[in-house]
Amino acid sequence: MAAIRNCRNLSKILSVKNKSFINFTRTYEELVPENTHEFFRNDFLPSQIKYLPNLYPKTKEEWNAAAARYGLHPDEYKPFDPVRNYNGDYPDLPLISYEAKDPYYPWDHPATRTNHGEALPMDFHELLGDRQEYGIRQPIEHGKATLIGWSVFGVFLILCYLMPDTNQFLMAKQYPGQGVHYTFELK
Amino acid sequence: MLIFSIMLFLFSFIMLFFSMYFLLLNYNLILEWNIVSLNSMKMNMFMIFNYKTLLFMFLVMFISSMIFMYSMNYMNLNNFLLKRFYYLMMLFLLSMVMLILSPNMLTIMLGWDGLGLISYCLIIYYNKLNSFNSGMMTIILNRLGDSGLLMIISFLIMFGSWNLVIYKMDNLLMFMLMIMIFTKSAQFPFYVWLPMAMMAPTPVSSLVHSSTLVTAGIYLMIWYENLFNIEYKNFILLISSMTMLISGLMANFEMDFKKIIAFSTLSQLGFMLSILCLNLNNLAFFHLFIHALFKSMMFMCVGSFIHYMNGIQNFRFYKGMFYIYPMKSMIMMFSLMMLCGFPFLVGFYSKDLMIEFYYFKKMKIFCLILLLISMLMTISYSIRIIVNLFNNKLMLNMIYLYEDKLMNFCMMFMMMIMLLLSKFIFNLNFMMINLNLLQIYKYFVIKMFILGFIMNMIFMKMNFKMILIFLKNFFFMMNMYKIIVYNFNKFLNKYEMIYEKSFYEIMFSNIMILFSMFNMKLFFNKMSLYMIILMYMYLMMIFIMF
Asked: Does the interface ipTM go beyond 0.90?
């Protein structure tokens, strides 16, 4: 009963204390690009914010500062697309696996072949171990290669269909006959 | 373990005796046990005791007894996973026996699924991520075949019994049966898993991936051979000949010692299937029998080489092995000659007959050309191995000096029994067979050696980079499977991220965000918004009521 008694004021609690329900009634004339990231950023502790990516850089100075923060050149630095895949100012780095990196370079962390303080790609967990081999140069792309393989199979099929049967010199079948030893005709 | 293997060995010879006895009396024992019968649907457990099944059981038990003995010295005894290894091998033996005895469509499930699962467990025995990768490939492709089996089982509920021989075959059923056979015995589009499965320890690959598991598909085809039409058989003939050609080519350019033998297994499987398509049931079984014996011996030889080289599998380091281990490399050479079909050795009896039948029977010229070229390939790569063993330029990395007696004993014993048995079993069916052919075709086996040697010389000097890449990638079929495995791994990673760690957090936080309407434009239109409001009102109503 105690739980039900507490539920009486649930709507009140929710509508007053929760910030989101106040915004519930808000109506937009036109669609405004806003992100949850900016709103929920203030809910974290200041010590946690230090390790989060900053907001998306809008001015050139912010851009340069963000590039410097991740240890990249401003021309090289490229954050995620803010509309499709918003991740603050975190750079969209390519996936390069363990095997594709130089084995003779003195890495700080030789197990993953990364340096200390290096910005890692967003899906870095996919590269752990040797399950994937992204970034290795291949003579032919995978899709193109499979096409060639199947086309070879198709050519083989066509050739097999077009070619005639083998023609071995065989004797006519012999059947036991009466009186004579054998005949070539079936009675 | 020694006692177990000796007992198994004795039991295998009892099986041989019984098989001969059954053949003498022309006796065929079928045990049938009705498990469930419901509305004219009968679930029966079948056990067929035939001279063929008993002979196959002898084969499996004999090879596995030798390999148990062999693996006592091969495996690291201090390894804490050793117990698991032996139990898995025993379970594998059990499931293989189940498969042999009951080829009924319902009860084959026990053996068929058991083989796939246990082979996966054995491939990932060395807990490395690379072996995980190859094990994953194996289990995915074996599951594909199993899905065919499951569909057949569920489809046959309509008819009321799972004896496939009684009914007239449907196209759909035929397709599923073909998928089953192709995945298990590693034919054209699904052959990738066999060379990848060489990540397993060598005793495993000598038992599982050469003689028993991969022959399961062919064993099934031997039972249900009469169901296939001529059109289907022509198609299977083309695919099997293609498999033979591709794997033969691959074996000529591969640099992993163990994988070369795996490719030769692939080509022999294609060989067996192609002879099955020409309605030669007994001959295919005979070649299956002989091939299992010498291929397992070959793997044992390679395994002992690898054992002494401290786990190095690179083919370049095996130059000049003949001068260090003459006995072992002699056995290796014998087994290679058997593979080629050297006159009056083990492989000769089956291979000679098969080539004669190729010329004798009616088939497409294209298939015949493919088969003969791939026949030359087998000789070419076996000569390549022999030349490498005799090479003077030693590139030894690391070797143990003292030879192991138990390993050598197993190989020698196996070879002796093999040499005795081959002619003996040949005489059971093919004693009186005589084919009328021109002499050119009759002596093709001998001519094959010269042509194969020339082909090997050509391949040695070949240095076209793009062609080599083309051949090394399985005619680029490898890339397709790479894409599949990449996407599967990606999915697994996402799955781990979302479902294991913070599924509920992400889910409910998203719902709160939906209520907050910040990201409203992305997910919902106006109608659903009204729906949410109404639902919320309804919930509030319920709360107020209480």
From this structure: no
